[in-house]
Design goal:
Layout lengths: L31 E7 L4 E4 L2 E4 L18 E10 L23 H4 L15 H7 L1 H20 L34 H23 L6 H18 L5 H22 L5 H17 L15 H11 L11 H16 L7 H17 L2 H8 L8 H26 L9 H12 L13 H10 L3 H17 L3 H21 L10 H5 L2 H8 L7
Antiparallel strand pairs: 1-4, 2-3, 3-4
Length: 521
């Protein structure tokens, strides 16, 4: 999820007659409209609404007016404006990814949006001919704009130290106050409308899957997962992942049976879906059965995603999360007496040992040929943070299933270790936005107020860089866990003192009791 730098837009004279610029108009209302524009024009006017666009291949507008290549379908922002108003003077919340080339939903899903390293850009020409893909892109971008409008101006006022006040304002509220929400609710409505249209079109495509474009379907499903991350990171994403899993299993089976290779785009789409699938299992309450330990083909696909997936999650650690979650869920849904406790406990400790044996430095070195940038040091730090976070996660599963277990590791120290590694990534670094999952684990585990303050600041900084709803919801979940832990600490009942550390304070159980499927990425 890389930070996008604002790009200057050259303003060019407006011709008096522009009939050819509005050959096609979508039915979308509000800020987002599809129009056919001539690349020669920098801006155009109709009914006092401004359409601003830029084309990557022709930034100066050198195409001939009559050239067919100069006509393309673009996603643009319609802004009521006076004739003299310049682009620079427009409100900050109105400056978004103005053309389809700049749609944030495609760009925030990767660490590095640079030429030949972001396969999501291949979806752009596909969207011109695929309405459901276009509607999904519109939905994600409009929702991204809606969230961006809610961001408060950057100031230290929202970076409040938790210990500084007893009756502090909700941390979530500090991430949801902004000047544009009341004036631009139409962006959110546009997002919901476009999402609904995309879902209807997707349903129709799935009813005739034999003639459908599988790549388009996978792209739509993946972007719908992205939509849910931008929205809240909880709930509906799990249904998209479940649908993607069915398609992917059939694709992999077909590939193995026919000994054919996946195309680069399909491989990228599949690998990204798989990352979200395994990563989502860590905090999903809904039980969706998996087919066991990932196959060699699946592991290869997960490794393909390591280089530029927004999470930068080492592929070797993802199956450990999934298998640990399976142990937890199988215990929760079991209705018969457990006859394999010892075997399951051995399996859990085997997972923990595998996590401890992971070598972040070796992983980072091996990744460099597949990384779009020279980022060895930051990759080592992020992998070290993920390693420690997975160890904490698996340890908490063990303590949930076998409360009397004595662990060798101090989990509070592991939480501090996570924070120490993540502190080396700062806003503006490409891997900064890959810190959400381990930061969330550190926040769940730590009782140290200074460390909690750090986690709060990290999620607030993530929100400022990328206004994804999962950031806001993750901080809200942490606030709930912390408040509950504080209240339980005040309880002096002798009946629950014995297992307070192992059981009552186990955040695995607390998250489960919330009854929400979380996806933190």
């Amino acid at each position: 999820m890389p930070q996008l730098q604002a790009q200057p837009l050259e303003m060019r004279p407006i011709l008096s007659t522009l009939p050819e610029m509005f050959q096609e108009r979508s039915k979308l209302s509000g800020l987002w409209q599809s129009v056919a524009v001539g690349d020669r024009y920098g801006e155009s006017w109709e009914t006092n609404r401004r359409y601003i666009r830029r084309h990557n291949e022709d930034p100066k507008g050198t195409y001939d007016l009559d050239s067919t290549s100069a006509m393309a379908l673009y996603l643009v922002h319609a802004e009521p404006s006076s004739f003299a108003t310049s682009f620079i003077d427009r409100p900050a919340c109105a400056r978004s990814r103005l053309s389809i080339e700049e749609i944030s939903g495609l760009l925030d899903l990767v660490l590095y949006d640079i030429p030949r390293h972001n396969p999501f850009r291949e979806l752009i020409p596909m969207a011109y001919q695929q309405p459901m893909l276009l509607q999904t892109i519109i939905a994600s971008s409009a929702l991204h704009m809606s969230n961006a409008c809610q961001r408060s101006p950057r100031s230290s006022s929202i970076l409040t130290t938790m210990a500084s006040t007893q009756n502090r304002t909700s941390l979530v509220s500090s991430l949801s106050i902004g000047p544009c929400m009341t004036s631009r609710p139409e962006t959110y409505h546009d997002a919901l409308r476009a999402k609904q249209q995309a879902l209807c079109l997707l349903k129709s495509a799935l009813e005739d899957i034999a003639s459908a474009d599988v790549d388009v379907i996978l792209a739509v499903v993946l972007l719908l997962v992205g939509f849910e991350l931008i929205d809240s990171g909880r709930g509906n994403w799990i249904f998209h992942i479940h649908g993607a899993r069915i398609i992917i299993e059939k694709l992999i089976a077909f590939t193995l049976a026919t000994e054919t290779a996946l195309s680069p785009l399909r491989s990228w789409l599949v690998s990204n879906c798989l990352v979200y699938d395994l990563l989502g299992s860590s905090f999903a309450n809904s039980y969706l059965p998996h087919s066991g330990w990932p196959s060699t083909t699946t592991m290869s696909l997960l490794q393909d995603a390591e280089g530029n997936h927004c999470s930068s999650f080492p592929a070797a650690l993802l199956p450990l999360i999934q298998t640990g979650a399976q142990l937890l869920k199988s215990n929760e849904i079991s209705t018969s007496p457990d006859t394999s406790t010892d075997l399951e406990q051995q399996k859990a400790f085997h997972l923990l040992h595998a996590a401890k044996s992971f070598d972040p430095a070796a992983w980072a070195i091996n990744l460099q040929p597949r990384s779009p940038a020279d980022d060895l040091l930051h990759r080592t730090e992020i992998a070290s943070a993920h390693k420690a976070a997975v160890c904490v996660y698996l340890s908490r599963i063990i303590l949930t299933l076998w409360p009397g277990t004595v662990l060798l590791d101090d989990l509070e120290m592991l939480a501090a270790e996570i924070i120490a590694h993540l502190s080396n990534m700062r806003p503006g670094d490409a891997l900064f936005t890959a810190t959400a999952w381990p930061a969330f684990i550190a926040g769940l585990e730590t009782v140290d107020l200074a460390n909690r303050d750090w986690v709060v600041r990290r999620f607030q900084e993530l929100w400022e860089m990328e206004p994804w709803g999962l950031t806001r919801e993750a901080l809200g979940a942490l606030e709930t866990i912390w408040d509950g832990r504080k209240n339980e600490d005040a309880v002096k009942s002798s009946n629950d003192r014995l297992h307070k550390h192992e059981e009552d304070w186990n955040w695995i159980q607390k998250l489960h009791r919330m009854g929400t499927d979380w996806l933190i990425a």
